[in-house]
Design a protein that fits this description.
Blueprint (H helix, E strand, L loop, with lengths): L2 E7 L20 E7 L6 E5 L3 E5 L7 E3 L3 E5 L4 E6 L1 E3 L12 E7 L2 H12 L5 H11 L4 H4 L6 H13 L24 H30 L1
Antiparallel strand pairs: 1-2, 1-9, 2-7, 3-6, 4-5, 4-9, 5-8
Helix pairs in contact: 1-2, 2-4
Length: about 220
């Protein structure tokens, strides 16, 4: 009862951040409006990266926050800010303006790791969104092509997934290990002894040859 929080989609004139294929999926696509009701001093509210935002309209995608947010709120003041999030249900509608959300639970381990990697690597873009969809929807390259994916963005998406060790259809390929024959290791004493024996046999053979030749001439 200390504050009133309203969370909604950001798609409205003058606030639009990132558009892909005429739809808004990522970037600063969510807005929070906070009103201090019964606070008597400055309060810092924090929204953690990896938090799920659940839409009241079930046709809209659940969102995942991809960057920590701090909201400074003074007594009696209102605060409004847009923040980074990404869609976590590929085939539902994006967070249109005015569509309301409520705070959900923290994302599961893999999605949590993806969200934090996207934050730290500044991948608040379509490649980061592809990585999220690769996990949440187990999507394939042909589907991502509909959203503008190409070989370069696919490679970057796989790099993100591999960096946090999240396996999906995009990067779950078996590693082929070539079995090489082990090198033959030879004891150096045996090696030198063998060379010496060969040299000795050669010397004896030459000596016998010349000895026999001398006898024949005599």
């Amino acid at each position: 009862g200390l504050v009133e929080v309203i969370i909604y989609g950001t798609l409205e004139p003058g606030v639009l951040s990132v558009v892909d294929n005429d739809r808004l999926h990522y970037g600063k696509c969510i807005t929070a409006y906070i009103r201090g009701r019964n606070i008597d001093s400055l309060v810092m509210l924090k929204l953690d990266c990896g938090t799920l935002l659940v839409p009241l309209d079930t046709s809209i995608q659940t969102m995942v926050v991809t960057h920590d947010v701090l909201f400074p709120l003074n007594k009696g003041a209102d605060y409004k800010a847009s923040f980074y999030a990404m869609c976590a249900q590929m085939h539902d509608f994006p967070p249109w303006g005015g569509k309301m959300f409520q705070l959900g639970e923290m994302a599961d381990g893999s999605l949590y790791k993806l969200a934090h990697y996207i934050e730290k690597s500044h991948m608040q873009n379509i490649v980061g969104q592809f990585a999220v969809w690769a996990y949440t929807d187990n999507t394939v390259f042909d589907t991502l092509k509909l959203y503008g994916a190409d070989s370069l963005s696919l490679s970057q998406t796989i790099e993100i997934l591999d960096a946090v060790n999240v396996k999906t259809k995009l990067n779950d390929k078996p590693v082929v290990i070539k079995h090489l024959s082990p090198l033959i290791q030879i004891n150096r004493y045996y090696l030198f002894g063998g060379i010496g024996l060969i040299a000795l046999l050669s010397f004896v053979s030459v000596y016998l040859f010349f000895t026999r030749s001398t006898r024949d001439e005599t």
